[in-house]
Amino acid sequence: MDTNKYNEIFYSDIFGKKSTKYYKIQKKKIEIIMKMFETHRNGRILDVGCGDGLISSMLAKRTGAKAYGLDISKNSIEKAKTRGVEAAAVNIDRDGIPLPENYFDGVLCGDIIEHIYDTEGLIENVRKVLKPNGYVVISTPNIASWYNRFFLMMGLMPTWIESSSKTFTGNPFIKEGVGHIHAFTKRSLTELLKLNGFRIVETKGSPVMGDGTRSKTKEMIWNTVDSAISRVTSWSSTIIVKARKK
Q: Smallest Cα–Cα separation from 129: which of 87, 100, 93?
């Protein structure tokens, strides 16, 4: 299957019938992202990969800025518009970010960079649309998370990256892939941003919370352990980086 078509189906599904589950497991990550955004009364913020616009609308309320959003899923874009987001369906890999240069105070790339073929192209386009001294907040799964280190040591495939777009092989604990093209560590992401005209402001780690499919005891243990270890960004489930345009 064409990767762009895969991403459209994947994100339409995530922000459709699976949206409640998605926001539950990403709760801590969203809280951290909210705190990284600054106040922008009468300003503009952009959510690249905005999905159904829930996070975009939350950022608009928090910052006082007008929220814009881009996403490959047409169904998600329609939902984002109902939340007051100025949203458009765009294939980032093909079309870039078709918005004015030096236009936004802040940009969010929430779990999108790992789905893009041209990573440098995405960062360059984000830099172009940011105002001087504007900033970007990027979140992405950590290929070097504590459990991935264990999986690799045991000869198993790590989570967040797969060998096929149709199935997941190499780890009996993982049942499905997530369509990631690239994988990141804290160091690889921060170095990439520095090489492309950004200054790192802040890095944080975030856990992936239980989704309610396990017993309460197992979920409590998982949430406690992952939350504790994720305080160390390089070992965390998710990496969140705030970087300012030079």
A: 100
Residue 114 sits in a domain whose CATH number is 3.40.50.150
- Collect all residues with Cβ–Cβ distance below 8 Å to 219 and sequence separation of at least 6: 210, 212
Angle subtended at Cα 92 by Cα 42 and Cα 199, rounded to the nearest 5 degrees: 60
Residue 181's Cβ-count burial label (10 Å; 0-12, 13-18, 19+) is middle
Residues 6+ apart with CB under 8 A from 25: 208, 209, 210, 211
Domain span at 59: 3-245
Nearest CA-CA partner of 173 in 190, 156, 160: 156
What is the CB neighbour count within 10 angstroms for residue 2? 8
| pLDDT tens per residue, range 46-85 | 999 999 999 999 999 999 999 999 999 999 999 999 999 9
